[in-house]
Model the fold of this input.
Amino acid sequence: MTTNKSVLSWVDEMKALVTPDTVLWIDGSEQQLETLRKEAIQTGEMIKLNDEKLPGCLLHRTAENDVARVENRTFICSRKEEDAGPTNHWMDPQQCYKMLYDIARGSYKGRTMYVIPFSMGPVGSPFAKIGVEVTDSIYVVLNMSIMTRVGNKIWDVLGDSNDWVRGLHCKCNVDPEKRYICQFPEDNTIISVNSAYGGNVLLGKKCFALRIASYQGKTEGWMAEHMLILGIQNPKGEIKYVTAAFPSACGKTNLAMLIPPEGYKKKGYKIFTVGDDIAWMRIGPDGRLWAINPENGFFGVAPGTNAKSNPNALASTKKNTIFTNVALNLDDNTVWWEGLDKNPPENAVDWKGNPWNGKTSSEKGAHPNSRFTAPAQNCPCISPEFDKGAGVPISAIIFGGRRAQTTPLVYQSRDWNNGVFVGSIMASETTAAATGAVGVIRRDPMAMLPFCGYNMGDYFNHWIEMGQKLGDKAPKIFNVNWFRLDKDGHFQWPGFGDNLRVLDWILDRCDNKADAVETPIGYVPKPEDINLEGIEDEVSQDTLKEILTIDKTQWQKEAQGIEEFYKKFGSKLPKELAAELDGLKARLQ
Ligand code: GTP
Ligand code: MN
Ligand code: MN
Done:
């Protein structure tokens, strides 16, 4: 336990508020965790799975109305409404504290309060930040112990410092009408009530590592981004690192763990996963941009994960993993989800806890947003740098979304400010119909729409300023789109492992080794510079040319959409981005 006065007095304050019977300080020991697992198994909160096939693995089901993040109940509580900006829900902090305290008051009665000290980032790393989460849920304790670095070692690093994030979680009675996920960036505080679902209650993840940290990054001169971090080793043994921001469900976890195509494997290419969801980036002593993954595990979507789509993710879930809202196979006490294999269990229990026959039932066995919480160290391709505090130097930053049309397979921005523009106009479509009808476009700048903890206009400006500091050492900025559809609604690019072919061009561009064609939106590869060896049958030269084409009429329409979107930000829109839009419009004339 700690002697830190700010921690002790806050924990006392929380204790007086929620009035638990007992307080348990999480020390990070395996022994304490095992006691908690046993207790959760005994009360039925968790189900122990097959010890031979899934050693150390547990299953948990949440309430049926509590299965996902809730953006409409997520608030940024800055003192001034303007500081939350046009893309966030805002509440006055004093009013919000009062409302939340009224909900939380007495809510731990008869139960235990767990105090979890945790580090986002390797303990003691110059990138890392400390948090303390108070919760009444063992599920939260066990998940936090996978997703973050937890225990007494945190107190040693924290010392007497007051620089730590406070997180209060109260399960209450999981009433969706009183569910609130509130961030107070100016107070380093998070309060989450009436939920017991991962994304809402593992406060280290989206609440801290993105919403609070993005605000800290702005004030302290660094960046917290919704990005994977990937190392690519070439046959000479050189490793280059890239980060990539795609909106949720657009393939970060897939790209972060990709399996190189056969031809690349033979040549000696290797992939190393540093992170699959969040990157914290700082300018290093060498003036370059360096990144760490602040997390210690993967909180991945289960459905669709299988031995073909993402074998590395699947392998990561084979031990010491917590499954949330998947189906339970009663025959061998293992788990199943849609898309795992073509052999659903007949004698099973669905995510709601009802008897379920996967062969005959029309209901889903697993919830579409069911998840696995897996230790990063389980991943076969985890980077040797993952646990080191120094981070990895970033050569390229990649933005991307799901666009049936308009956006080419890949393009490079003209320079940093143009790259910030490219990130700011990121958009994703709801899946287009088979007829090729264009889906509804949702703008999701830098994939941070649900996660930016302050005014997004100021966030754009922070990006511009980071570029000024980085100067000619700044990573090059690219945009990719794996999701172009043909007239019949088929994907034109095979994606997944074959995305390495695009990364290959991107890294060659960073080394000035590949040529490009200048277009109004940026630099596009010459078709002959994308290596199609081994997939010539799947992707014809004509298809490749088509998905690298910029259609001026579509882009003129796109420019109108951007102009409309930019109006939201009023005077907060950086003049640099307004100039970029003007430049694009002029080049499209
Ligand atoms: P969060 O973890 O929620 O932030 O999302 P994520 O970005 O990690 O998304 P995830 O990797 O879970 O997204 C998976 C979805 O994207 C699945 O439907 C995949 O089939 C699809 N996907 C991933 N990569 C590709 C690709 O290269 N091509 C195509 N066509 N689909 C892909
Ligand atoms: Mn993911
Ligand atoms: Mn995410």
Observations:
- The two ends are 66 Å apart (CA to CA).
